[in-house]
Amino acid sequence: MTPDQLRQHVIAPTLINMGMWSQEAEDLLLETAMHESDRLKRITQYTGPALSYYQIEPATLHDLYDSFLRYKPELLKKLDGFRSPNLSQNDNLRMNGAYATAAARLQYYRQPGAIPDTIEGRAAYWKRYWNTPLGRGTEIKYINDNKG
Predict the structure, then answer these.
(1) The CA-based dihedral angle spanning residues 20, 112, 102, 91, taken in that order and rounded to the nearest 10 degrees
(2) For the residues 111-132, what does the mean pLDDT come to?
């Protein structure tokens, strides 16, 4: 899948269906996928449990459900609307791009502040809320993974 295909056929339609589309959100999710998946080359982590182009760890998904979505039934309904009922949550992350995109959007949505409108701002936002200050990822690599 190319970045344009991911944007046009998965990210944008999923966000629109959720009623959570903005250009900043669309850009953030594509950039996150590009960076986390080594420019869309993998959907599993090399040495860890993370799944999908967004590299969401199952523990992170479970926390999203347990600590956030259980108190937001309207958002839970949006995420579960993308879930394939014959697949486990982990299999949905790995094999269901719309579900993984919705989960990634909600993981960012639970964070404070608006999504920045520049790639530099989104790189800082990604670092703080996705990779975390203790993570090995860098804002420079995020930006470089999203050039051309």
Answers:
(1) 180
(2) 97
d(CA 22, CA 117): 10
The pTM score is 0.96
Tokens for 46?
């090399």
* DSSP state, residue 71: G
Angle between helices 73-80 and 97-109 (to 10 degrees): 160
Q: What is the mean pLDDT of residues 42-53?
A: 90
Q: SS3 for the chain, per residue?
A: CCHHHHHHHHHHHHHHHHCCCCHHHHHHHHHHHHHHCCCCCCCECCCCCCECCCCECHHHHHHHHHHHHHHCHHHHHHHHCCCCCCCCHHHHHHHCHHHHHHHHHHHHHCCCCCCCCCHHHHHHHHHHHHHCCCCCCCHHHHHHHCCC
pLDDT score at 117: 97
Angle at 55 between CA 12 and CA 5, to 5 degrees: 30
d(CA 144, CA 35): 9
**CB 113: neighbour CB atoms within 10 A?**
8
